[in-house]
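2024-03-11 09:14:02 INFO queue: dequeued item Integral membrane protein, len=750
2024-03-11 09:14:02 INFO validating residues
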Amino acid sequence: MADVSPTGTTTSGGIVELRVHGVSGSGADQVLNRPYVHQVAGDRSGGFYRPRPGYPDSTGTGGVTLEAYRWSDLPSGTAVRTLSLVFLLPFMLCNVALWMHPAIHGWKNVVVALCRVLALTLTMLYVLSIVGVAVDLIAWRCMGTPACMGGRSWLSWLSGRPIGLRLGVLALVPVAAIGLVWWLSTRLSHSFDAFRTREPAASKHRLSAVGQWDGAPLVGRLRSVHVAAAFATLDGSLLAARSSQHRSPTMVVLLAATGGLLLTCLVLVAAVRSIDRTDPTPGMDAFFRGLRTIACGVTILVIVHVVISPAPWSESRALPGYGAIVAWLFVSQTVLVVILAALVIWRRGGRHPDGGGRPAPLRALGAPVLVTIAAGLAVAFSAELVYRTADVLDRDGTTADGLVTSPPLAYKWAIFGFFLAVLSALLAAGVVTLLTRGRRWRAARAIVAADFPHAPPEAAERLRQVEQAVARARFTERLEPLTVVYAGLAALGLATSALGLFHILPGDVLQQYVGLPENFVNFFIGTGSYVIAALLLGLVIGGLFAYRTVGFRRYVGVLWDLGTFWPRAAHPFAPPCYAERAVPELAKRISYLVEQGHGVLLTGHSHGSVLLAATVLQLPARITDRCALLTHGSPLRRLYARLFPASVNVSALEEIGERVGWRWVNLWRDTDPIGGWIFAPHRDGDNETPAGPAAAVDRRLTDPLDVVPPPSDSVPPPIMAHWPSESQEAFAEAARDLIARLRAGRPGTG
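2024-03-11 09:14:37 INFO prediction written
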């Protein structure tokens, strides 16, 4: 929609309050708190709205013009897209992990290279899981067994055919799976292409790269490498099976070509400086596309060779070499995770990663922790796919333990390790909850007693509810050690998959060394398989509810929007970065309003404050000199500075304050589990005492406003927690303060 000129309510030199919502997916009328709105710029996915002129109360605090930017459809989109992104969750987590490393001077490229190699192994695992279902279980095992073929007319058309033909035909299934993620990764980014910018970055901080950096060349190169590696993984699986009984000059050439492709892919993703180049390099891009084309050609030759090769095939129970390839991939992932964790622990130091001075022994471990969780989920999903298919095919067996279609041992160990890690993490969470409950409740009681010192006796139950809200909100700080514990357990479970190389069964090991009966262990593995299936089903249902239900999206949206906020720099099949559109669109709109002679009050709730922070870091001084910033429920310091210390830290936050002339107010509540302070926490035991203008940024809000009903009501005011603050008087007061500073052209004061 084309931009329309301001209405009569806006004059040159006036103030525009531009509101950016959080992850709730609220409509523009809810963000503006006005029932009648109209769109003035943008489209359905991301647009700018204003109250319709002529209706009562169409202006904001102090008569300013209200405007809202609605971006909630950018990261979600259609239900089909949402479901497809749910199944690509491990790719997204691996991509986010790359942005979570601490500021490691001189070792950044090594960390990036390790994250990208791990991302490449996830693509290979994706292909191997499809190969395990289509080629190993169906083409090799089931079609070679009359008992498995009985009553399955959908497979009978290949019954009795040569093994090579069966393998060649069913190899088209992983080819189609590779084509699907290839197509999705290309299609999902088209909607953001028009918003890329190549203007020089206005800030040195990495947060300014979001929406500024043109990641299309990098994503295109990574996509070519991953597609080539995916086809090479399929080729290697087929050639390993064929070479077990037959060797020929053609086989040697195909093996050499496949090995060369895989080695080239590993070298390319590890060559960070070359693959990250943003200057026009037609020759390099042509090389990457050529690598992908060669991989496609080699795959065609391998499938043809498997089909027409006259040599006999082995009579082995499983596809030769497949189980070993899977186990070695798990071993490689474990080694890479250990190296990444060791490097981060060695080089990060012991200080607080967001720029504070307190020791932080468990902080700044986000990169190895999240990449371990991503690998653990990918392994669990792949194992469940193969395991559940084997269970369906093996009608007479129990939980896929029959002799005909039992999955490779590496997958059994993976399910066992994943389930054990989940149970242990849940147990640790329960222990941490109990151990910290007393301290959290004591702090909550002190806060509530200070906020409501004269509460009457009849408000005891309401005071208890407020204390509970504060205590629960404080549990956010306890999630870091829990995720570290789970990641360690997941890595240990991933490492046990290597026992599949030695043909060691989980039941045999536990029965011999722990004393658990083998049948109990098999039941444990079967239960773990159902837990993974339930997790997958939950993700699908959650994706649908997050798309269709605004209330549900408020709880799961913060995690999803956090994951898709960062550009694709590790895995090309991850969901596209919606900030590639939102941040440039905001920057252009703010610049337009300032150039028209208006001052702009930027108000951002929750994740909207993160979008505004990235935008402010990109705007030139002539624009930010006419801007002020009001954030509420902001996760900038509480979550982002903890999780992304190299991108969001005290230095970056101070630069944001300086850019807007310290015309910045941040509202936060103790009941909020997501948002928090920016510079001054104002909590017992916190020693941070910011000086200068930064000390005046944070304003703590009492929540709720009271614990007894007002004279005009029969119930006490609600506990707002993470809900927006636009309807509260504290928000209007902060807005009036910033508007006055904008009109006077003066900065904030200490």
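2024-03-11 09:14:37 INFO annotate: Residues 578-745 form one domain.
2024-03-11 09:14:38 INFO item closed
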